[in-house]
């Protein structure tokens, strides 16, 4: 489902990703951990091509782009369509209701008829536990509720892969659980997911694979029980000691 090879990304002189390889099967959940500045967000943004990689290939659900060559807008769009992204700051349209936020992508991007999009959006908002908040504006919703709208909005475009960039780190602690629960439900339904998070409990409960990144490289890739109890690399051990 996901194949990334030799991915590099530089911002000017600063090389942030230094050759990332990542393979993931359909339905797998990978959690990416690592110190601040190690390139986790940049990797996720490259997978959605919000950042254009400097070199390397990305293949999502059979749609491939090779950034060592010139990549056309059509190729970029084809790769981008395969994934949906959930951001740390939910980035909802403030002047649109929950249901309008979820309908926006299908109506504008996919030209889905409004009524069809509305039905789908309602279904998705029910799925994330917000069936009674369809007509609420973002300012009338808690952070956890806004983030669940954010998840429904990403799902509305029917992506094959969901990318989560620290989805709970802007939330008050008591609101984290409701968002993680929605993510666990998605994982249990077989969604392929890439999650950058500091929530180690989530990694333990939901990840098939945990990747530890440091200084733009993948240092270690293991199952969650292995990496947390018996990390192979000294740098992984040091990081886990610091955060526990
Ligand atoms: P992480 O998510 O692991 O904290 P990031 O991917 O956010 O790491 O950032 C990695 C490095 O890339 C940092 O040094 C950051 O300052 C730099 N960086 C990220 N985005 C940009 C950008 N748009 N322009 C310049 N530097 C950036």
Give an account of the 3D structure:
With 244 residues, the chain is of the alpha/beta class. The chain is 38% helix and 25% strand. The chain has 9 helices and 10 strands. The protein has helices at residues 40-47, 73-80, 98-108, 114-127, 143-155, 173-188, 200-206, 224-229, 234-243, and strands at 2-11, 14-24, 29-33, 55-60, 63-66, 83-86, 161-165, 192-196, 209-214, 217-222. The chain has a 6-stranded mixed β-sheet with strand order 6-7-8-3-9-10, with helices on both faces. A hairpin with a 2-residue loop joins β4 and β5. It is globular. It starts with a strand and ends with a helix. The model has no long low-confidence stretch (mean pLDDT 96). Adenosine-5'-diphosphate (ADP) binds at residues 11, 14, 16, 34, 36-42. It is a peripheral membrane protein. Residues 2-240 form the ABC transporter domain. Its main location: membrane. GO terms for molecular function: ATP binding. This is Amino acid ABC transporter ATP-binding protein.
